[in-house]
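Hi support team,

I'm filing this because I wasn't sure whether my run with zinc ion finished correctly. The job status page said complete, but I'd like someone to confirm that the output block is well-formed before I use it downstream. Pasting the exact inputs I used:
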Amino acid sequence: MIHRLSRLLLALVGICAAGSTVGAAEWKVGLAQVKITPEQPLFMEGYASRDRPYEKIESDLFVKALVLEDREGHRAVLVTSDLIGLTAAVAEPICDRLRTKLGLQREQVLLNSSHIHTGPMLSLQPQPLRTGMSAADMERTIAYTRWLQDRIVEVVEKASAKLEPADLRWGHGVAHFVMNRREWTPTGVKLGANPRGLADRTVPVLRVDDAAGRMRAVLFGAAVHNTTLRPQHNRICGDYAGYAQAHVEQEHKGVQAMFMIGCAGDADPYPHGSYDLAREHGTALGKEVDRVVETKLQPVRGSLKVALAQVDLPLQEWPSREELQKRAATKRGLEALNAQRMLDLLDRGEKPPRTYRCPQAVWQLGDLTLVALSGEVVVDFVPLLENALGPNRLWIAAYSNDVYGYLPSARVLREGGYETRGIYAGSVGTFDPKAQDVLIETIRKLARDVGRQN
Ligand SMILES: [Zn+2]
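And here is everything the job wrote out:
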Protein backbone atom coordinates (compact mmCIF):
# COMPACT_ATOMS: atom_id res chain seq x y z
CA MET A 1 0.00 0.00 0.00
CA ILE A 2 2.75 2.43 1.03
CA HIS A 3 4.68 1.33 -1.97
CA ARG A 4 1.68 2.13 -4.19
CA LEU A 5 1.20 5.52 -2.53
CA SER A 6 4.80 6.50 -3.05
CA ARG A 7 4.50 5.52 -6.70
CA LEU A 8 1.43 7.74 -6.99
CA LEU A 9 3.31 10.59 -5.30
CA LEU A 10 6.22 10.13 -7.65
CA ALA A 11 3.83 10.27 -10.60
CA LEU A 12 2.31 13.50 -9.23
CA VAL A 13 5.77 15.02 -8.78
CA GLY A 14 6.47 14.09 -12.39
CA ILE A 15 3.32 15.87 -13.57
CA CYS A 16 4.17 18.98 -11.52
CA ALA A 17 7.70 19.03 -12.89
CA ALA A 18 6.39 18.80 -16.44
CA GLY A 19 3.85 21.53 -15.63
CA SER A 20 6.47 23.90 -14.24
CA THR A 21 8.67 23.39 -17.33
CA VAL A 22 5.74 24.29 -19.55
CA GLY A 23 4.90 27.31 -17.39
CA ALA A 24 8.38 28.77 -17.82
CA ALA A 25 8.41 28.72 -21.61
CA GLU A 26 11.85 29.02 -23.17
CA TRP A 27 10.76 30.97 -26.23
CA LYS A 28 8.32 33.47 -27.60
CA VAL A 29 6.85 32.75 -30.99
CA GLY A 30 4.74 34.78 -33.41
CA LEU A 31 2.90 33.19 -36.32
CA ALA A 32 1.03 34.47 -39.36
CA GLN A 33 0.19 33.39 -42.87
CA VAL A 34 -1.17 35.11 -45.97
CA LYS A 35 -2.58 33.66 -49.18
CA ILE A 36 -0.61 34.64 -52.28
CA THR A 37 -2.57 32.77 -54.96
CA PRO A 38 -2.54 35.03 -58.03
CA GLU A 39 -5.82 36.30 -59.43
CA GLN A 40 -4.53 37.77 -62.69
CA PRO A 41 -3.46 35.69 -65.70
CA LEU A 42 0.27 35.23 -65.14
CA PHE A 43 3.03 33.13 -66.65
CA MET A 44 4.34 30.44 -64.32
CA GLU A 45 8.05 29.88 -63.55
CA GLY A 46 10.02 26.63 -63.67
CA TYR A 47 9.81 25.33 -67.22
CA ALA A 48 10.94 27.47 -70.15
CA SER A 49 8.68 25.67 -72.64
CA ARG A 50 5.42 27.11 -71.26
CA ASP A 51 4.17 29.76 -73.67
CA ARG A 52 0.95 30.96 -72.01
CA PRO A 53 -0.36 32.05 -68.59
CA TYR A 54 -1.62 29.46 -66.09
CA GLU A 55 -5.05 28.05 -66.90
CA LYS A 56 -6.61 27.60 -63.44
CA ILE A 57 -5.97 27.27 -59.71
CA GLU A 58 -5.39 23.71 -58.51
CA SER A 59 -4.43 24.70 -54.95
CA ASP A 60 -3.72 27.94 -53.07
CA LEU A 61 -0.26 29.32 -52.36
CA PHE A 62 0.85 30.92 -49.09
CA VAL A 63 3.63 32.84 -47.39
CA LYS A 64 4.04 32.04 -43.71
CA ALA A 65 6.10 33.65 -40.98
CA LEU A 66 7.56 32.26 -37.77
CA VAL A 67 9.08 34.87 -35.44
CA LEU A 68 11.34 33.43 -32.74
CA GLU A 69 12.55 35.22 -29.64
CA ASP A 70 14.73 33.75 -26.90
CA ARG A 71 14.70 34.66 -23.18
CA GLU A 72 17.21 37.47 -23.70
CA GLY A 73 15.08 39.04 -26.43
CA HIS A 74 17.19 37.91 -29.43
CA ARG A 75 14.79 37.71 -32.34
CA ALA A 76 14.77 36.16 -35.82
CA VAL A 77 12.16 35.67 -38.52
CA LEU A 78 11.74 32.71 -40.85
CA VAL A 79 9.48 33.18 -43.87
CA THR A 80 8.52 30.19 -45.99
CA SER A 81 6.68 30.50 -49.30
CA ASP A 82 5.07 28.39 -52.01
CA LEU A 83 7.13 29.96 -54.80
CA ILE A 84 9.93 29.10 -57.25
CA GLY A 85 12.44 31.14 -55.22
CA LEU A 86 13.33 34.74 -54.41
CA THR A 87 16.27 36.32 -56.20
CA ALA A 88 18.32 38.92 -54.33
CA ALA A 89 16.63 41.59 -56.49
CA VAL A 90 13.25 40.60 -55.02
CA ALA A 91 14.41 39.60 -51.51
CA GLU A 92 16.69 42.49 -50.53
CA PRO A 93 14.07 45.29 -50.82
CA ILE A 94 11.85 43.18 -48.53
CA CYS A 95 14.68 42.93 -45.98
CA ASP A 96 15.33 46.70 -46.26
CA ARG A 97 11.70 47.39 -45.44
CA LEU A 98 11.75 44.97 -42.50
CA ARG A 99 14.82 46.80 -41.17
CA THR A 100 13.06 50.17 -41.39
CA LYS A 101 9.69 49.00 -40.11
CA LEU A 102 10.65 46.45 -37.46
CA GLY A 103 14.34 47.10 -36.79
CA LEU A 104 15.29 43.64 -38.10
CA GLN A 105 18.88 43.36 -39.28
CA ARG A 106 19.58 41.34 -42.43
CA GLU A 107 20.88 38.31 -40.51
CA GLN A 108 17.63 38.16 -38.50
CA VAL A 109 15.60 37.41 -41.63
CA LEU A 110 15.55 34.08 -43.48
CA LEU A 111 13.47 33.84 -46.67
CA ASN A 112 12.95 30.30 -47.97
CA SER A 113 10.86 29.18 -50.96
CA SER A 114 9.69 25.64 -51.72
CA HIS A 115 10.83 25.90 -55.38
CA ILE A 116 7.49 24.93 -56.91
CA HIS A 117 7.38 24.87 -60.71
CA THR A 118 3.65 25.63 -60.74
CA GLY A 119 3.70 29.10 -59.21
CA PRO A 120 3.87 32.60 -60.67
CA MET A 121 6.97 33.91 -62.41
CA LEU A 122 8.65 36.65 -60.38
CA SER A 123 10.47 39.60 -61.90
CA LEU A 124 10.94 43.34 -61.49
CA GLN A 125 12.44 43.78 -64.98
CA PRO A 126 10.31 44.66 -68.02
CA GLN A 127 12.17 42.41 -70.52
CA PRO A 128 9.96 39.45 -71.52
CA LEU A 129 11.40 36.24 -70.04
CA ARG A 130 9.64 33.76 -72.33
CA THR A 131 8.62 33.46 -75.93
CA GLY A 132 4.95 34.30 -76.10
CA MET A 133 5.15 36.88 -73.31
CA SER A 134 3.86 40.35 -74.20
CA ALA A 135 4.73 43.66 -72.55
CA ALA A 136 1.36 43.45 -70.77
CA ASP A 137 2.26 39.97 -69.46
CA MET A 138 5.49 41.36 -68.01
CA GLU A 139 3.63 44.29 -66.47
CA ARG A 140 1.32 41.87 -64.69
CA THR A 141 4.33 39.81 -63.52
CA ILE A 142 6.03 42.93 -62.12
CA ALA A 143 2.80 44.06 -60.42
CA TYR A 144 2.39 40.60 -58.84
CA THR A 145 6.03 40.61 -57.65
CA ARG A 146 5.60 44.02 -56.00
CA TRP A 147 2.32 42.86 -54.42
CA LEU A 148 4.11 39.74 -53.16
CA GLN A 149 6.85 41.86 -51.57
CA ASP A 150 4.11 43.78 -49.72
CA ARG A 151 2.53 40.50 -48.54
CA ILE A 152 5.84 39.22 -47.14
CA VAL A 153 6.40 42.46 -45.21
CA GLU A 154 2.78 42.24 -44.00
CA VAL A 155 3.05 38.63 -42.81
CA VAL A 156 6.22 39.39 -40.81
CA GLU A 157 4.58 42.47 -39.25
CA LYS A 158 1.53 40.41 -38.29
CA ALA A 159 3.61 37.61 -36.75
CA SER A 160 5.85 40.08 -34.88
CA ALA A 161 2.84 41.79 -33.33
CA LYS A 162 1.62 38.73 -31.41
CA LEU A 163 4.52 36.99 -29.71
CA GLU A 164 3.41 34.37 -27.20
CA PRO A 165 5.29 32.00 -24.86
CA ALA A 166 6.26 28.78 -26.62
CA ASP A 167 8.37 25.66 -26.34
CA LEU A 168 10.30 24.15 -29.23
CA ARG A 169 11.21 20.53 -29.82
CA TRP A 170 12.71 18.90 -32.85
CA GLY A 171 13.30 15.54 -34.47
CA HIS A 172 13.29 13.96 -37.89
CA GLY A 173 11.65 11.38 -40.11
CA VAL A 174 12.10 10.03 -43.64
CA ALA A 175 10.70 10.89 -47.09
CA HIS A 176 10.80 7.89 -49.41
CA PHE A 177 9.94 9.69 -52.66
CA VAL A 178 13.23 11.62 -52.74
CA MET A 179 15.31 10.46 -55.74
CA ASN A 180 18.70 11.53 -57.07
CA ARG A 181 17.96 12.67 -60.62
CA ARG A 182 21.44 12.58 -62.18
CA GLU A 183 21.05 9.55 -64.40
CA TRP A 184 24.10 8.16 -66.19
CA THR A 185 23.62 7.51 -69.91
CA PRO A 186 26.08 6.62 -72.70
CA THR A 187 26.20 10.34 -73.57
CA GLY A 188 26.77 11.62 -70.04
CA VAL A 189 24.64 12.65 -67.08
CA LYS A 190 21.02 13.47 -67.95
CA LEU A 191 17.96 14.49 -65.94
CA GLY A 192 16.33 11.22 -64.95
CA ALA A 193 16.37 8.89 -61.97
CA ASN A 194 19.44 7.45 -60.28
CA PRO A 195 18.48 5.09 -57.45
CA ARG A 196 22.18 4.58 -56.64
CA GLY A 197 22.83 8.29 -56.39
CA LEU A 198 23.06 10.16 -53.10
CA ALA A 199 19.85 11.73 -51.79
CA ASP A 200 19.02 13.31 -48.43
CA ARG A 201 15.77 11.65 -47.32
CA THR A 202 15.67 13.42 -43.96
CA VAL A 203 12.45 15.11 -42.91
CA PRO A 204 13.57 17.56 -40.22
CA VAL A 205 10.69 18.63 -37.95
CA LEU A 206 10.44 21.50 -35.46
CA ARG A 207 7.37 21.39 -33.24
CA VAL A 208 6.16 24.63 -31.65
CA ASP A 209 3.89 24.31 -28.59
CA ASP A 210 2.14 27.03 -26.60
CA ALA A 211 2.61 27.38 -22.84
CA ALA A 212 -0.16 24.82 -22.25
CA GLY A 213 1.61 22.22 -24.40
CA ARG A 214 -0.75 22.50 -27.38
CA MET A 215 0.87 22.36 -30.81
CA ARG A 216 0.67 25.73 -32.57
CA ALA A 217 3.03 25.28 -35.50
CA VAL A 218 5.27 22.76 -37.17
CA LEU A 219 8.17 23.53 -39.45
CA PHE A 220 9.37 20.65 -41.61
CA GLY A 221 11.54 20.04 -44.64
CA ALA A 222 12.50 17.70 -47.46
CA ALA A 223 15.46 17.84 -49.84
CA VAL A 224 13.69 17.34 -53.15
CA HIS A 225 12.57 19.58 -56.02
CA ASN A 226 8.88 20.50 -56.09
CA THR A 227 8.65 19.06 -59.59
CA THR A 228 6.07 16.29 -59.30
CA LEU A 229 4.26 18.54 -61.79
CA ARG A 230 5.88 18.99 -65.19
CA PRO A 231 5.74 21.50 -68.09
CA GLN A 232 2.34 20.20 -69.25
CA HIS A 233 0.80 20.98 -65.86
CA ASN A 234 -0.23 24.58 -66.29
CA ARG A 235 -2.26 25.13 -63.11
CA ILE A 236 -1.24 27.04 -60.00
CA CYS A 237 -0.39 24.40 -57.39
CA GLY A 238 1.82 24.06 -54.29
CA ASP A 239 3.03 20.61 -55.51
CA TYR A 240 3.94 18.02 -52.83
CA ALA A 241 5.05 20.70 -50.33
CA GLY A 242 1.70 22.51 -50.61
CA TYR A 243 -0.25 19.28 -50.17
CA ALA A 244 1.93 18.26 -47.20
CA GLN A 245 1.30 21.58 -45.43
CA ALA A 246 -2.44 21.35 -46.18
CA HIS A 247 -2.52 17.80 -44.80
CA VAL A 248 -0.85 18.78 -41.52
CA GLU A 249 -3.08 21.84 -41.09
CA GLN A 250 -6.16 19.73 -41.74
CA GLU A 251 -5.12 17.01 -39.27
CA HIS A 252 -4.19 19.52 -36.58
CA LYS A 253 -6.74 22.34 -36.51
CA GLY A 254 -5.28 25.74 -35.74
CA VAL A 255 -1.70 24.62 -36.40
CA GLN A 256 0.45 26.52 -38.89
CA ALA A 257 2.45 24.09 -41.05
CA MET A 258 5.54 25.49 -42.78
CA PHE A 259 7.80 23.84 -45.34
CA MET A 260 11.51 24.64 -45.76
CA ILE A 261 13.35 22.89 -48.61
CA GLY A 262 16.79 21.29 -48.22
CA CYS A 263 19.68 20.51 -50.62
CA ALA A 264 17.30 19.51 -53.40
CA GLY A 265 19.41 20.67 -56.36
CA ASP A 266 19.77 17.19 -57.88
CA ALA A 267 16.71 15.44 -56.47
CA ASP A 268 13.26 14.94 -58.00
CA PRO A 269 10.12 13.35 -56.56
CA TYR A 270 9.85 9.74 -57.71
CA PRO A 271 7.67 8.91 -59.49
CA HIS A 272 6.39 12.19 -60.88
CA GLY A 273 4.09 13.52 -63.58
CA SER A 274 0.53 14.02 -62.28
CA TYR A 275 -1.56 16.02 -59.83
CA ASP A 276 -2.45 12.72 -58.13
CA LEU A 277 1.23 11.95 -57.52
CA ALA A 278 1.83 15.47 -56.14
CA ARG A 279 -1.03 14.90 -53.71
CA GLU A 280 0.24 11.39 -52.89
CA HIS A 281 3.80 12.56 -52.09
CA GLY A 282 2.43 15.52 -50.11
CA THR A 283 0.15 13.27 -48.08
CA ALA A 284 3.01 10.82 -47.43
CA LEU A 285 5.22 13.68 -46.23
CA GLY A 286 2.39 15.16 -44.15
CA LYS A 287 1.69 11.80 -42.51
CA GLU A 288 5.36 11.41 -41.67
CA VAL A 289 5.26 14.85 -40.00
CA ASP A 290 2.11 13.76 -38.09
CA ARG A 291 4.03 10.71 -36.88
CA VAL A 292 7.24 12.55 -35.95
CA VAL A 293 5.50 15.26 -33.86
CA GLU A 294 4.11 12.53 -31.60
CA THR A 295 7.50 10.85 -31.05
CA LYS A 296 9.99 11.74 -28.34
CA LEU A 297 11.45 15.01 -29.61
CA GLN A 298 14.54 16.88 -28.44
CA PRO A 299 13.78 20.07 -26.49
CA VAL A 300 15.33 23.21 -27.97
CA ARG A 301 16.58 25.26 -25.01
CA GLY A 302 19.01 28.13 -24.79
CA SER A 303 19.89 31.20 -26.79
CA LEU A 304 19.20 32.24 -30.35
CA LYS A 305 22.21 33.44 -32.29
CA VAL A 306 22.14 34.29 -35.97
CA ALA A 307 24.83 35.09 -38.52
CA LEU A 308 24.77 35.86 -42.23
CA ALA A 309 27.70 36.43 -44.57
CA GLN A 310 27.72 37.77 -48.11
CA VAL A 311 30.22 35.38 -49.68
CA ASP A 312 32.12 35.83 -52.94
CA LEU A 313 31.98 32.40 -54.58
CA PRO A 314 34.52 32.02 -57.41
CA LEU A 315 33.31 31.65 -61.01
CA GLN A 316 35.03 29.87 -63.87
CA GLU A 317 36.83 31.83 -66.55
CA TRP A 318 34.60 32.49 -69.52
CA PRO A 319 35.11 30.67 -72.81
CA SER A 320 36.43 32.63 -75.80
CA ARG A 321 34.07 34.84 -77.81
CA GLU A 322 34.24 32.31 -80.67
CA GLU A 323 33.22 29.46 -78.37
CA LEU A 324 30.35 31.53 -76.94
CA GLN A 325 29.11 32.33 -80.48
CA LYS A 326 29.23 28.63 -81.31
CA ARG A 327 27.27 27.72 -78.15
CA ALA A 328 24.68 30.45 -78.73
CA ALA A 329 24.11 29.11 -82.25
CA THR A 330 24.18 25.35 -81.64
CA LYS A 331 23.08 24.69 -78.04
CA ARG A 332 19.57 24.86 -76.67
CA GLY A 333 17.79 26.18 -73.60
CA LEU A 334 19.74 27.70 -70.72
CA GLU A 335 23.13 26.85 -72.25
CA ALA A 336 22.38 28.88 -75.39
CA LEU A 337 20.75 31.63 -73.35
CA ASN A 338 23.76 31.91 -71.03
CA ALA A 339 26.16 32.06 -73.99
CA GLN A 340 24.06 34.87 -75.47
CA ARG A 341 23.97 36.72 -72.14
CA MET A 342 27.77 36.48 -71.94
CA LEU A 343 28.12 37.81 -75.50
CA ASP A 344 25.75 40.70 -74.74
CA LEU A 345 27.82 41.62 -71.72
CA LEU A 346 31.07 41.52 -73.71
CA ASP A 347 29.44 43.65 -76.44
CA ARG A 348 28.60 46.27 -73.82
CA GLY A 349 32.32 46.37 -72.96
CA GLU A 350 31.82 44.85 -69.49
CA LYS A 351 34.33 42.49 -67.88
CA PRO A 352 33.33 38.90 -67.05
CA PRO A 353 32.65 38.68 -63.29
CA ARG A 354 35.12 36.50 -61.35
CA THR A 355 32.87 35.88 -58.36
CA TYR A 356 29.20 35.82 -57.40
CA ARG A 357 28.31 37.40 -54.07
CA CYS A 358 25.54 35.51 -52.25
CA PRO A 359 24.14 35.30 -48.70
CA GLN A 360 24.79 32.27 -46.47
CA ALA A 361 23.24 32.05 -43.03
CA VAL A 362 23.61 29.98 -39.85
CA TRP A 363 21.22 30.13 -36.91
CA GLN A 364 21.89 28.54 -33.56
CA LEU A 365 18.72 27.69 -31.61
CA GLY A 366 19.91 26.33 -28.30
CA ASP A 367 22.07 23.38 -29.39
CA LEU A 368 20.35 22.98 -32.79
CA THR A 369 22.15 24.49 -35.79
CA LEU A 370 20.20 25.60 -38.85
CA VAL A 371 22.31 26.16 -41.96
CA ALA A 372 20.46 28.16 -44.63
CA LEU A 373 22.31 28.08 -47.93
CA SER A 374 21.36 30.20 -50.94
CA GLY A 375 20.85 28.83 -54.44
CA GLU A 376 19.86 25.42 -55.76
CA VAL A 377 22.37 23.42 -53.72
CA VAL A 378 23.15 19.82 -54.73
CA VAL A 379 23.07 17.01 -52.17
CA ASP A 380 26.88 16.62 -52.00
CA PHE A 381 26.91 19.62 -49.66
CA VAL A 382 25.08 17.58 -47.00
CA PRO A 383 27.99 15.18 -46.26
CA LEU A 384 30.46 18.04 -46.81
CA LEU A 385 28.72 20.09 -44.11
CA GLU A 386 28.35 17.06 -41.84
CA ASN A 387 32.11 16.55 -42.08
CA ALA A 388 32.83 20.22 -41.45
CA LEU A 389 30.38 20.79 -38.59
CA GLY A 390 29.71 17.34 -37.18
CA PRO A 391 26.58 15.40 -38.15
CA ASN A 392 24.46 15.90 -35.02
CA ARG A 393 21.88 18.58 -34.21
CA LEU A 394 22.12 19.88 -37.73
CA TRP A 395 19.32 21.11 -40.05
CA ILE A 396 20.45 21.95 -43.57
CA ALA A 397 18.20 24.13 -45.74
CA ALA A 398 18.87 25.62 -49.17
CA TYR A 399 16.98 27.94 -51.58
CA SER A 400 17.24 30.63 -48.92
CA ASN A 401 17.59 34.41 -49.29
CA ASP A 402 18.76 34.35 -52.95
CA VAL A 403 17.91 31.77 -55.61
CA TYR A 404 20.29 32.59 -58.46
CA GLY A 405 20.90 29.17 -60.03
CA TYR A 406 22.42 25.81 -59.22
CA LEU A 407 25.29 25.49 -56.78
CA PRO A 408 27.07 22.32 -57.96
CA SER A 409 29.77 20.54 -55.98
CA ALA A 410 33.26 19.99 -57.43
CA ARG A 411 32.20 16.40 -58.25
CA VAL A 412 29.06 17.47 -60.11
CA LEU A 413 31.06 20.09 -62.03
CA ARG A 414 33.54 17.39 -63.04
CA GLU A 415 30.80 14.99 -64.15
CA GLY A 416 28.68 17.59 -65.95
CA GLY A 417 24.91 17.56 -66.33
CA TYR A 418 21.97 19.88 -65.83
CA GLU A 419 23.21 21.41 -62.56
CA THR A 420 26.39 22.76 -64.21
CA ARG A 421 24.63 25.17 -66.58
CA GLY A 422 25.41 28.30 -64.63
CA ILE A 423 23.84 31.23 -62.86
CA TYR A 424 20.46 32.38 -64.20
CA ALA A 425 19.73 35.44 -62.07
CA GLY A 426 21.84 38.27 -60.68
CA SER A 427 24.96 37.50 -62.74
CA VAL A 428 26.31 35.41 -65.60
CA GLY A 429 28.74 32.51 -65.32
CA THR A 430 29.38 29.07 -63.87
CA PHE A 431 30.76 28.32 -60.41
CA ASP A 432 34.36 27.21 -60.15
CA PRO A 433 35.07 23.89 -58.37
CA LYS A 434 36.82 26.00 -55.68
CA ALA A 435 33.41 27.52 -54.74
CA GLN A 436 32.76 24.34 -52.74
CA ASP A 437 35.67 24.92 -50.33
CA VAL A 438 34.91 28.64 -50.00
CA LEU A 439 31.33 27.85 -49.06
CA ILE A 440 32.21 25.12 -46.55
CA GLU A 441 34.84 27.31 -44.87
CA THR A 442 32.33 30.16 -44.64
CA ILE A 443 29.71 27.95 -42.98
CA ARG A 444 32.33 26.52 -40.62
CA LYS A 445 33.25 30.06 -39.52
CA LEU A 446 29.60 31.17 -39.20
CA ALA A 447 28.81 28.09 -37.11
CA ARG A 448 31.74 28.95 -34.82
CA ASP A 449 30.49 32.56 -34.58
CA VAL A 450 27.02 31.46 -33.41
CA GLY A 451 28.53 29.06 -30.89
CA ARG A 452 27.82 25.63 -32.38
CA GLN A 453 29.36 22.90 -30.24
CA ASN A 454 30.43 19.84 -32.23
ZN1 LIG B 1 15.48 23.79 -59.69
